[in-house]
Specification:
Length: about 230
């Protein structure tokens, strides 16, 4: 895990990489590389190298990323990105044979949105989303809503569904739980979601002047899916 010994996460990682048939392509925004407490390295440590490929960048073209372009054009590829056009992943795995590739965008919600909509390659695979009410265990980082999940958590849930193996989620989440426990023991504070803070009158930052951002906050308070 490359962390100091007193906060080493290696004991919480699987002894051997998980045996999975699904290959994950993590499209990582460059800003995530500099974050100390990012979750993708933990995900990569749980999987074989050939089953977790990380591509860093904002723009991905067919000329510069021919392998990714081939993957995006494959009928066995899914991209995990919620929205009106997305199908629940559980429904896709029931209706068809197991897809072999899942693309996940790693970044803040605004960064992920920018990557998804400004790269035409990512509109080629079938778009799917997770239908889950579980709350994020990544409590040392603020999420927009109570049910927004980190990249590692999304991958854990998705792999569990695609591989039809409930133990995967528990195994992949174990190092994240340990990471958060270590940080809280060393002075970190629990970060409630923006939705929780707004609903309970605890949001202490200035309200945005931008009408679009203000409208999004109103939707969070009124429990409207955004």
């Amino acid at each position: 895990c490359r962390r100091p010994q007193k906060v080493c996460l290696c004991p919480f990682l699987p002894i051997h990489p998980l045996k999975v048939s699904t290959c994950l392509y993590i499209i990582q925004h460059p800003a995530e590389e500099s974050r100390v407490l990012r979750t993708v390295p933990l995900l990569a440590a749980c999987l074989p190298p050939d089953k977790c490929k990380i591509l860093v960048g904002r723009r991905f073209s067919e000329d510069r990323h021919p392998e990714l372009a081939t993957v995006c054009r494959s009928p066995n590829t899914l991209i995990l990105y919620p929205g009106a056009e997305a199908t629940n992943l559980e429904e896709v795995t029931v209706m068809s044979a197991n897809p072999s590739v899942m693309i996940i965008i790693d970044g803040t919600w605004s960064q992920a949105k920018d990557i998804f909509y400004k790269n035409s390659l990512f509109r080629l695979p079938k778009q799917v989303q997770l239908k889950t009410n579980i709350s994020s265990q990544y409590v040392i980082r603020t999420q927009p809503t109570n049910t927004c999940l980190s990249t590692l958590e999304c991958a854990a849930v998705a792999l569990t569904i695609m591989e039809k193996n409930k133990s995967i989620q528990e195994t992949v989440l174990r190092p994240l739980q340990a990471l958060c426990a270590f940080q809280l023991q060393h002075g970190a504070q629990i970060h409630h979601s923006k939705e929780h803070l707004l609903k309970n009158g605890l949001y202490d930052k200035p309200m945005p002047k931008n009408k679009r951002k203000l409208r999004r906050m109103e939707l969070l308070v009124n429990n409207v899916k955004i």
